[in-house]
Amino acid sequence: MKRSEFLKRFGIKLDMAVEAHDLIRGETGREIPGVKMDKQTFSQGEITVINIMEPLGAQIMGKPIGTYITIDAPVIRENNKLAHKEVTAKLAEQLGSILNLKPEDSALLVGLGNWNATPDALGPRVIHYSLATRHLRKYGPQEIFGVLRPVSALAPGVLGITGIETAEIIKGVVDRVQPNLVIAIDALAAQSVERIGTSIQIANTGINPGSGVGNIRAGITQEFLGVPVIAIGVPTVVNAATIAQSVLDQFMQQINQNPVLAKTVANLNPISVDQAIKNVLQPYQENLMVTPKEIDDLINNIGKIIAAGIGQALHPSVAPEDLEMLVH
Question: DSSP per residue over 101-152, as a string?
Answer without folding.
Answer: --TT--EEEEEES-TTSGGG-HHHHHHHTS---TTHHHHS-GGGTTTSPPEE
